[in-house]
């Protein structure tokens, strides 16, 4: 009897152990789907900036100082943003004067949001056949053949003329002073030194960027030392010419707007244009005077969607902005608060939504001024979003997600490229597969270059995400709000002769075959589909947020998470700017060879272990970095008290200032 009792106790204890182990296994598998295991929003490392008169935010403190100067002189948010744009281009804050400018502007006088399209276009000699005959699979990453027409000068001047209050001379005064010489930062000096092997290929770039040199020993040329005055005499002269054109027009009786456009004429049709074309052609480029003359800035109506009472505005499909709207449409009916911030379920859901939306971006986005028209109405349809979201498998990552067909959601139109859609496959990087340590971005390696310095495959997949771009936000008490994501002409850059201005490298974002991206196939005069994505959100018709970030294809991934951090999880603007985000590489890169890396996800190194185990089980390849927020700058508006708060991430030198 006693033995039977002992056996029964032993059996019960064994059963209890089995149940306990089983329960623990279940917990390990399911815990990170429980919001109790979601990541807690962390304290921010720096405070938010408050103001009721104005807020200025940008990627560099010096740019923000310039914005504050303009505000103190009585300028509005457009004036301040224009001056910060000029300063950012002058100090090479991940972009230069020959790059691109994309902006959204909230006009308090009309309540409308306006879009500024100042993306450069392919020169008239740039065709897919031209590059294919040179054995390029994609246009080069750097060099004179990588350039599209300069957009930033035109974008700045049109924006200032249409919506600003100050003269071009007032806006450019700080940048002209900086071009005489400003103390260069260590990070910028190091980047120039890092890139000098390429900069030496182009004499004008070497002359500007490598001032510490021995002409008898080119191998010893070097970048400015940290703290040394970085002098740009040629750029100083070019900016002064723009002011001279404006002042001459004013002296002849022109009004403010027409005088600014006289400077525009000199840049795109006068002696500055002639020097840009001469220098580009002398190094094997394709620019003509007609290319610069025909290029123009468009003031457009942005696209938008609503998410739980918030109206979010983005630029049209010539950039990737609508992809965030597609993602918001798919997420709107989901209970993200139940999932919890950065739980495995939350991360998996967002990753799948990103994959669905970016597959559409990769196939359908392109220059809307070239036929056929992109199916933007269908792509932004709420019904289309619900049907796309229904494809998500909660049990695994889907590496083979393909673009959808939005045409049935905007009427009876037939998809003109259905023949490519049926056979579409992701462009997977040949050597992709497996976890790797990417705590730092790999150094540049030149895989191929010609005598003119046209460089192919210079950037790793990671560098394409982070190579260039900066962000600018400005708002004033009158209700003017500006969000800008300028980019292009980043280092290492081809400098156009005596202008002192570097040219863009955006040509690489084109496809040479329409099979993979039929709306973004290279044509003369066409704008490449860029990654640049400024954002403005309204609530009850009034400004609620302005936010943007650098980071290539990562931009709208981070902006989506920033937006949800505030709207769903109640973070303040600084917490949301610094919060741990993740980054997907399953999409096609907009740079280099346009490869994708399905399942690859980059996470912050302090993520919950149970969450990480679940993500591995779901099929993800995990990588870790100390910071993952992206260099976000943002403004959040308090409509109750009529105040505003600025935030800037701790990712780099991003700074906000208010009064």
TrEMBL record:
InterPro entries associated with the record: GGT-like_enzyme, GGT_lsub, GGT_ssub_C, Ntn_hydrolases_N
SUPFAM superfamilies to which the protein is assigned, alphabetical: N-terminal nucleophile aminohydrolases (Ntn hydrolases)
Record flagged with keyword Mitochondrion: no
Keywords: Signal, Transferase
Entry coiled-coil feature ranges: none
GO molecular function annotations of the record: transferase activity
Residues of the signal peptide: 1-38
Name of the protein this chain belongs to: Gamma-glutamyltransferase
